[in-house]
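## retry 2 of 3
previous attempt timed out at serialization; input unchanged, resubmitting
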Amino acid sequence: MSFLEAITDEDRQYVKQFILLPLIIAAFERDCRYISDNLKTPEPYVDTIKLAINKARDDFKEIKKHFWLKGLKVYEENQTKNGIEAKFKCRGFQSDMELQWDFLTAQASILMRKYLGLDISMYEDRTGPEELWITY
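## retry succeeded, writing output
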């Protein structure tokens, strides 16, 4: 008889990142197009954003690798007026989550700053048990 570990807080954090990172990459790509079309010297800004996109893509690859190793799969994602609803499986267990737009916007803003190389230490949550600290 094998023991299946229930879905952990860490698993849920990975699902959140799996949902959030494509939104961030799309926002960066949109901003690159806007900057290219509207600034006289867009190159330095676009280059900086492209580096951020590459970092976000690298993180997304690592998240997908973690999904494979941990048996995680998001099998449904729906945008609603309140946010994004996702259904996922993890080691045989099914679950769902809803991420509100306010949460997604705040998290995206922090992560975008991180990928642009800005200091985000003021946003890190170091309360509670160390394994649940929110760091970026």
